[in-house]
Amino acid sequence: MAKLYYRYGTMQSNKSNQIITTHHQYTTQGKQCLAYSTPIDTRSGFKKIRSRVGLELVCEYIHEHIYDEVREINETARVHAVVVDEAQFLSRKDIHNLSDIADYLDIPVICFGLKTDFRGELFEGSKVLLELSDAIDELKTICQFCNKKATMNMRMLDGEPINVGETIQMGDEEYVPVCRKCYKARLELVK
Ligand SMILES: [Zn+2]
User: Fold this and answer.
1) Phi, psi dihedrals of residue 5, rounded to the nearest 5°
2) Using alpha carbons only, how large is the chain's radius of gyration in Å?
3) Which is the catalytic residue, given 56, 75, 86, 174?
4) DSSP alpha helices (H): ranges in 51-123?
5) Cα separations (Å) of 107 from 56, 99, 156?
């Protein structure tokens, strides 16, 4: 049975590079891999996934009929995998549809996303993926301020950390990956 995967990390945890590499591994073996993202984040350009090291992948956007779309493509030419970027922005319904692709079409679905927002709270898409995925991996990176593993995203505004504002803020130059202790220290949440 195909699995639903969730590979989560903080900002700068190499997610886009990994999704592009995964896609490349399938296609170089002559296997069809469909790439999707969400229309919420268009920093990389319209229907594009772009990594920090300059790799780029054309994608489609997840929509409410994603299951039927993949089923129809798979009937014409076998689909070997589906990769999804920015999965934190997906709805519960979107993720149920993706799980149906794994369960009923027997196609692995590999989702990449941010676990938590800059308040340290789960994104809706991440919450559902943590609930439903068969396999969950953490993509690791290092805290901006010390040498520990980063687990949180700190939002910076004019060089100062803040934890207020809209949940969905674009422009990852505004965010730095930090460990929990540095997050508390920088936001003066230390007891
Ligand atoms: Zn730290």
Assistant:
1) -110, 145
2) 17
3) 86
4) 66-76, 92-104
5) 24, 9, 39
Distances (CA, A) of 114 to 13, 30, 104, 124: 9, 30, 27, 10
Q: Which domains does the chain have, with CATH numbers?
A: 4-140 (3.40.50.300)
Q: How many Å apart are CA 27 and CA 37, to the nearest integer?
A: 18
pLDDT at 173 (0 to 100): 60
**Ligand 1 centroid to residue 184 C-alpha, Å:** 9
Count of helices and strands (H, E) across the chain:
5, 11
**What DSSP string describes 120-146?**
S-B-HHHHHHHHH-SEEEEEP-B-SSS
Look at residue 42 in the predicted model and tell me its pLDDT.
63
Token pair belonging to 13: 């945890």
Q: How far is the CA of 161 from the centre of ligand 1 (A)?
A: 14
Place of tokens 């990176």: 141
- Among 55-59, 81-85, 158-162, whose mean pLDDT is lowest? 158-162
121 is catalytic: no
Report the SS3 class of residue 50: strand
Q: Looking up tokens 């220290």, which residue turns up?
A: 185
* Cβ atoms 110, 7 nearer than 8 A: yes
Residue 137 is predicted with a pLDDT of 97
The answer on pLDDT for 187 being more than 70 is yes
